[in-house]
Design goal:
Elements: H1 5-9, H2 13-25, H3 32-43, H4 48-58, H5 62-71, E1 83-88, H6 91-95, H7 98-109, E2 122-127, E3 139-141, E4 145-147, H8 155-160
Parallel strand pairs: 1-2
Antiparallel strand pairs: 1-3, 3-4
Length: 163
């Protein structure tokens, strides 16, 4: 369940910062993607209260804003963890056992791809290819650290580097 003080008191610092972003494009529906991107960078994701505020500021319907949020893969409607675990599901990684990596992550972290751990430490996602076919199966941590030739037994050690 989503809770946010900023909806209730309008004076919250996060709301003020969001309003500054919206003000740059106020009444300009063509600025929607720029506003959504800046809002996500500010808040971390795009909860309903943010979408409502953006819709009002740009003169759009909530449905239009939601449609853009859900169309583009780089927007998220759920909070993301401090660390992003991107599991390669490309052909080479799949053939070399990426499905076992996903299964182990699910067992160790208690979440499926697309979900975030309860402590907000890790978000697991499947990606199509990370360009590390020679290291298959592989994951990228936080979009930069490649861990290759993984086996289920190595997963706890990899995750331990990010705790």
């Amino acid at each position: 369940m989503e809770t946010c003080v900023c909806v209730c008191n309008g004076e919250d610092e996060l709301t003020k910062q969001l309003d500054k972003v919206i003000d740059e494009y106020r009444g300009q529906p063509s600025g929607l993607i720029q506003v959504l991107t800046k809002a996500q960078n500010l808040v971390g994701y795009l909860p309903k209260w943010v979408q409502v505020r953006i819709a009002q500021g740009l003169g759009l319907s909530l449905q239009e804003v939601y449609g853009v949020c859900t169309f583009y893969a780089f927007f998220s409607l759920i909070p993301k963890g401090r660390h992003k675990v991107s599991v390669c599901a490309g052909t080479a990684c799949y053939v070399k056992g990426s499905q076992m990596i996903v299964k182990t992550l699910r067992e160790v972290l208690g979440v499926k791809p697309g979900q975030t751990t309860e402590d907000s430490r890790f978000t697991v996602e499947l990606v199509r290819c990370i360009g590390a076919c020679g290291l298959a199966p592989a994951v990228i941590m936080d979009g930069k650290d490649v861990h290759g030739r993984l086996t289920p037994e190595l997963i706890p050690a990899v995750l331990g580097e990010y705790k």
